[in-house]
Amino acid sequence: LGVETYLCGVVGKDEAGRKVKELIEGNSIKSFLIVDDRPTTKKTRVVSRNQQLLRIDWEDRTHISGKVLEEILKVIKNVNVDGIIVSDYAKGVITEEVVQKIREKRVFYSIDPRPKHKELYKKAPLMTPNEKELREMVGLEGSIEELGEKLKGELEIETLIVTRGEKGMSLFKNNDVKHFPARARKVYDVTGAGDTVIASITAFKLAGASWEECCELGNLCGGIVVGEFGTATVTPEKILKALKVNS
């Protein structure tokens, strides 16, 4: 989308870590990858007829060491950005210290959460759980409107956007709820859909779009990537083409 992007994370001293660095730098992304003794997280998807059957993960979920944490905090403090996306995969990297350092920068930040860490996300400018994560955080029973308002109030989240797959997404802002239908025409592969949504919404918001525009375009971007097999990306050309198809 033409956004200057930086990536901070932890990789191991292995081939997967080297491949991650190679892919990042090959796509004009500046990386702040901290190399640790733990292995690089790897995910293998078993697919049949364009449908994912299962996923096998090789990972280390223990908390990062104090030395690695110091490196991450240093990156957060020194990097000059307009906004930050926190993708919490519950692998031991997103800690209270990391979130606090992000708060101290006083820039817009968005969080892709994990239910067991919900207390870390208090007063976040934007959080984007999916419906399953929302129900895990506040209770399985109740309407999407009730549960969304409950979570937003409990954590004092400024803006909450709940992604709901084929149902689209729901925006919770200023004691109001708005629903936006999904834009996907065909679904081939949902890999990376949530990442695409939070990345595009954050980018559009920092560019000055309204929350309603962010949700409409975020839905559109999510619809684009699930319509392609494998981990897909969104480009301005794809967005313009999708806008014409959906107009």
Helix percentage: 25-40%
| Structural classification | alpha/beta
How many strand elements? 10
Order of helices and strands: EHEEEHEHEEHHEEEHHH
CATH architecture of the domain at 1-106: 3-Layer(aba) Sandwich
Describe the overall structure:
It is a single chain. By secondary structure, the protein is α/β, with parallel strands linked by helices. Among the domains are: 1-106, Rossmann fold (3-Layer(aba) Sandwich), CATH 3.40.50; 182-247, no CATH class. Helices cover 39% and strands 23% of the residues. The protein contains eight helices and ten strands. The protein has helices at residues 15-26, 66-78, 96-105, 131-138, 144-155, 193-206, 211-226, 236-246; strands at 6-12, 30-36, 42-48, 51-58, 83-87, 108-112, 126-127, 159-163, 169-173, 176-180. A six-stranded mixed β-sheet has the order 5-6-7-8-9-10, with helices on both faces. β5 (83-87), α3 (96-105) and β6 form a beta-alpha-beta unit. α2 packs parallel to α3, α4 (131-138) packs across α5 (144-155) and α6 (193-206) runs antiparallel to α7. The protein is globular, with a radius of gyration of 18 Å. It starts with 5 loop residues before the first strand and ends with a helix. The mean pLDDT is 93.
